[in-house]
Amino acid sequence: MAQKENEKQSETEELRIGVFICHCGLNIASVLDIKELVEFSKTLPDVAYVKDNRYTCADPGQEEIRNAIKEYKLNRVIVAACSPRLHEPTFRRTVSEADLNPFLFEMANIREFSSWCHPNTPKEATEKAKDLIKMAVAKARLLRPLETMEVPVTNKALVIGGGIAGMNTALDLAEMGFKVYLLEKDESIGGHMAQLDKTFPTLDCSLCIEGPKMVDVGRHPNIEIIAYADLLSVSGYIGNFKVKIRKNPRYVIAENCTGCSECKEVCPIEYPNEWDMSLGVRQAISIPFDQAVPLVYTINMDYCIECYKCVDACGARQAINFDQQPEEIELEVGAIIVATGYDIYLPYDNPLYGYGKYANVITSLEFERLILAAGPTGGKVVRTSDGQKPHSVAFIQCVGSRDINKYQYCSNFCCMYTLKHVIQLKEKYKEDIEVYVFYMDIRSNFKGYEEFYQRARELGVNFVHGRVSRVFEVPETKNLIVHAEDMALGQPIEVKAEMIVLATAAIPKKGTEETAHILNLTCGADGFFMESHPKLKPIDAPTDGIFLAGACQGPKDIPYCVSQGSGAASRAATVLSKPTWKIEPIIAMVDPDKCRNVKTKCGICAQKCPYGAVKAEEGKPANVITAMCHGCGTCVAECPADAITQMHFTDAQIFAQIRAALETNPEDKILAFLCNWCAYAGADLAGTSRFEYPPTIRPIRVMCSGRVDRDFILEAFRLGAGMVMVGACHLPYDCHYISGNWKMKARMDALAPMLQKLGLSPERFRVEYISAAEGVKFAEVISEMTEQMLALGKDKIKAENEKLRPILENMLKRKKIV
Amino acid sequence: MPLQTLKRDTAEALTLEWVLHIRNYKLALDKNLCVGCQICTLACPKEAIKLEKQPKIPGEKAKHAKVDIDLEKCNFCGICDILCPYGAIKVTVNGKHILSVVEKESFPQLIRDIQVDTSKCPVDCVECKEACPLDLIKVTRLTTDGKVVENVDSLTEKERAKLQVKINIEKERCPCCRICEFKCPEGVMHVRKFFHGKIVIYPEKCPEGCTDCLDICPITGALYLSDKSKKVHVNEMFCTYCGACKVVCPVDEALELKRTKISHTSVSSGAWNKALERLASPIEMTKELKAKGSQKAMESVEKRLGWKVS
Questions:
Q1: What is the pLDDT of residues A140-198, one digit of tens each?
Q2: Is A448 at the interface with chain B, CB within 8 A?
Q3: Which of B175, B192, B209 is the last residue of a domain?
Q4: How sure is the predictor about A207, in pLDDT bands with cuts at 50, 70 and 90?
Q5: Whose CA is closest to A221, among A258, A189, A180, A188?
Q6: Is residue B133 within 8 Å of residue B220, measured between CB atoms?
Q7: Do B206 and B188 have their domain in common?
Q8: Contacts A251 to B, Cβ<8 Å
Q9: Domain that residue B291 falls in
């Protein structure tokens, strides 16, 4: 409401713009003619006050702004200084201290974009700075006050996945005092760690250290474990998620089950235990392993014959209920932590190693279950074929990993667990066993890991540096012959082994794509979940309020998972600890009167939104869920009816900037739309690095290249722009808004051939992908475009423009833009 | 090695296997013994067994239906093994024929009640051996010192009087048809059927000239072709109620077969109740439950079927 009132007020009141031009010491003043800029600014419409200062960002400079707002009743403020990426937040604070809405402030970047990159052409640089100020004034005249919105926060969390990462997140959050729901797909929490025998590099028993943690999780008053359940759907937004979960029937009433195992004793049916990698069996009513948490038995109806012997055995406890049905529950949480973990690749499809074909070829996880004292063989490493202990074992590394035909990435922990396995074998069977490791590189780069490698070498393990080319089985003995290349010898070798253990790749958990779909997350090329930023936001998912922990984001070992779990807890706490969450008002809004979805089935905006923040129900106008909108503006550019507006980057504001930029000598200028996070930052870097390029460019900042409407391009050429460029983040994954750059690309790929057909020289319209680190590239692109523009010549450009103008005018008239 | 699930189908046998690192589960169906009755199909708690009718080739005898087992559904519980009247299915774990469902009393065994009093046997009589339609009976004569005598005729009267007759029956494969009992001139054999019931062929519905049921019936004499009516008739005395005939009968309701009682060792098991329900009828099953007085089981049946056990 307040916003509407503010808007009304600002529409009726007379515009009084203050322009503050910064010398930045000599950074700006040594190149640009400040006096000329001041005089020029005074001539611009609605400018009521112009002032230059040595350092606008310093306290006296800020004080001057605050005073001028009051004294001259300024209601729009422009600072012509450095990049808004640097000081926009500073000056927004300054103006709001003088009771001016912070969104009535605009910056003209005359340092990074002019003085620093055109030091040798001060005259042209000053002209460019004038345009930059003119563009800022043009936009400022249309600025509207915006209010930061606040949404309430439910201070409960959902952790998806009860492995070591998820457990740590849950425990940390619970200790901070937040209620945590821990959702686990399987019957018990514990994850892969509970399947392991020992942990590297200390060789302490895995379940001995994880077991107590599992019990802590089970007993914590703030944690509710929802095991044997599936995630069905998630709606809502940061602070306010609604989660639907299906609890699958165990046919055992959890409250009544005491975990006594009497039912298991009488059960006649056995089936392969997946927990044991199907090396062993479990009863149709059983728990996957003795330390399971929650300690509740489960009947597997795929195998149960319903003899009801368990019912008799359970007796008065009455814990067994064959009529149990799936149950759907709904939770409300403020933050979600995804810790769904990984799967192990089973190389059935790789004929090289004979997995699934030769009896004595196993994976490392199978080996783990063999050497584990509580495993199906009681800790005896024996062969499938004859139940005998092998006298020689070959370990093959990077099966599936680091393989461009399979999984290109390194699976992170295989080197270390193989070292663990070989040390265990050597220490258990001593001279009685010969051990080979075929490896590409041994990666042991963490605390105590290299020493562990050294220990393995000292124990007399044969490390062979080279890829295995083929494994053959000797049919009579079921022994195996490994053919490999020994890179140290530089020749092929043959090794006989009685057992082969394959270190197979860690791959995305089955169902990752479905989870991604439910939570609106993205997966990288490797199939694991993508973080918001690989360096600075490695735990945040691109959707606000959702965080990633553990191997679901990429293969990780235990200490890394534990730390990331704790990291995710603290990130989630930044949301959960607040009663309300502030949302940036630079969001999209739909004008229900213009929206076509009321009459025809449109919904383009809903399809294109990278965040699923736009909902378009049939027969109703589309609706943007404010808290989910990230403000990229892609939907705004896509809307065929121009019914959507992006606050602070409205069509009118951007058209005003285009027109201001191209008012004089348009055919000498390159009009550029730069996305805030990559291309604009790259241009900033060109400035800060003092890369010189011709002062031909007139940049317009948008939050995302997805915001660049085709009408912007048309308008620019209608006005006679020499060249037009769109600068975006690199494909495929650099976009700050997941996929805005892809949407822009699709749009521009369609537009470019149309313009060429109309007679535009192809080089005059260009899409460039420039990262924040590519200052050089930005400078090069502008130099190149300027050369092309000069090569084409003003006359040719003018001639083309003459031909284009009436057509473009018609197109834009139809949309009532002209 | 990862879990291997195998299925092999040869002319001789159908074999299903789970090969685990530490255990091997195997189900083998001997196709030479299988008669295509529906017992295993009905009894399987996982509905893993299907019968495939064999197309009839004109001019040839009908063939019994073929059994197929779904590897995805089979859990190697061995119930088919227990109930097969002809002993055609063997389930083994690590090569041993020990069935957990029997060991843990969650499924009964059929009672093949065959009493043989060889003291009455004439030394040179092999009537039972010759009568057995499945060739399961072996008659041997032993001297006092335990030697097997091959040729009785070569002995003197005195020697013959001293001989002992021994009758070996392959009990596991015996469907208890009672033919041996009937044919025995001295009343040596006493056989009780394990399936009891009723079988009727309605002549008005039975197509003339069709002998499909007779073609496949494994028990010689249980069905016969009447010279007069040219239709197949039943001799209930020898019928084992296995139902192979019912499977191949081309006309609905021409052949009616009902099992009413099954002789089995005593257990209390939901799995058996279900099997009984399918092999006989829900009524027979509740009768048995009532006899056992298992109130709780009855209640659950009532709940499931939606009618009152009276």
A1: 999 999 998 888 999 999 999 999 999 999 999 999 999 999 999 999 999 999 999 99
A2: no
A3: B192
A4: very high
A5: A180
A6: yes
A7: no
A8: none
A9: 270-297
Residue A119: asked if its preceding bond is cis (omega within 30°), the reply is: no
How does pLDDT run across A673-692, given as a tens digit for each residue? Answer: 999 989 999 999 999 999 99
CB contact under 8 A, B21 and A376: yes
**Whole-angstrom distance, CA of residue B156 vs CA of residue B134:** 33
Assess whether B95 and B127 both reside in one domain.
no
Rounded Cα distance between A429 and A379, Å, is 12
- With respect to residue B29, please indicate whether it lies within any of the assigned structural domains: yes
Q: Which residues of chain B have pLDDT under 50?
A: none
Phi-psi region of A657 (alpha: psi -120 to 50; beta: other; left: phi over 0): alpha
| Cα distance between residue B68 and residue B174, in whole Å | 23
Domain count, chain B: 4
End-to-end CA distance of chain A: 32
ipTM of the modeled complex: 0.90
Q: What is the dihedral of CA B171, B175, B178, B180, to 10 degrees?
A: -50
Least confident interval from A44-58, A59-73, A277-291, B114-128: B114-128
Residues A190-217, buried b or exposed e (16+ Cβ, 10 A)?
A: bbbbbbbbbbbbeeebbbeebbebbebb
Same domain, B188 and B130: yes
Nearest to B1 among A303, A308, A361 (CB): A361
* CA neighbor of A193 nearest in space, from A174, A209, A173: A209
User: In order of start, what are the domains of chain A with their CATH numbers?
Assistant: 1-146 (3.40.50), 154-248+326-341+509-577 (3.50.50.60), 249-324 (no CATH), 343-507 (3.50.50.60), 587-628 (no CATH), 649-818 (3.40.50)
Task: For residue B245, give the nearest of B282, B200, B289 by alpha carbon.
Answer: B200
Contacts of A360 in chain B (CB under 8 A): 1
Residue B272: list chain A partners with CB under 8 A: 307
